[in-house]
Amino acid sequence: MGDDIRTLTSTDADEFGRLCAAVERDHPTPLRLTADDFREMGQMPGTRFFGAFDGPTMVGWSGFLASVQPACQRFLVDGDHDPARPAGELPAALLATALDAARAWHVDTEPDLPVLFVNRAAQGRTAHERLVTGLGFAPERYRYLMLADLADVPEPPALPDDLVLTTFSDDDSERLRRAHNEVFRDYPNGATADEDNWAGFMLAGHARHHLSYVLSDAGGAVAAYAFAHEYGAPASGRAEDREVYFPYIGTARPHRGRGLASALVARTLHAAAAEGFTAASLDVDMENPDGASGIYERSGFRVHHTFVEYALRESAPEPEDPAPAEA
User: Fold this and answer.
1) Mean pLDDT value across the chain
2) Gap between the Cα atoms of 136 and 209, Å rounded
3) Superfamily of domain 146-307
């Protein structure tokens, strides 16, 4: 193969950002990172990145992001290579490196839990599908990256009088995390957030708390929420846009059917447009049991890309029998 694969550090950020930009010009990816995004994500516990180098030039990357779900430890595994050079064995070697490192992380951190590895790629990438299925993954679900233009955004609808509107507060973070985990406790392939994962995404520099809205009842229970982020590289790939991204949108079970999440999304879109954002994006499971894609279409979103979600499951190792006592 001839390429040197090693663990990446913050000193590799600029080269990583250059490679990701080259990849994105060739095909859409589910994880778009600039150099600054890489530096930020690299500080999260449970995150590892690897790079393949031809001399000083990075020609491929892989990595994982670990989180603890109610019934498993989940690893989002990703990677890609320079589209200007023949792939050869490099993509398989990179992804295998990330999987081996994730398995080692699992043994060190949550050895009693089963493991779920998830990988996503744009629909129609047959070479990638051959690669991941060869490593044991199977296609399980489809996800939409949806995009809305923010020209002529209407005024948001009125909110119910029995609920209190606030924005995201660091001091209120744990209450919101627990509410989110309750909303998504049964979501396919995991969508809850442990404390480290939540802090890395929701308390980081890309979070836009003033555009992240929460509705709570009189007793302080969360009824609905819509959180907003802004990344250096827009999720849609449209570099000409200033894009607000919704990482989490949810409604507590007792309040479903009231249109609360849609109302909060509309409020964020209106506020973001007034601030100079020109587009909004979000990611949704195509078979979301709550019909979320239809809800977002009514809010002005349209499917921009379709991604295939591949999954690989491994059981927790059986405990070893204790050694017999010596006579």
Assistant:
1) 93
2) 39
3) Gcn5-related N-acetyltransferase (GNAT) (3.40.630.30)
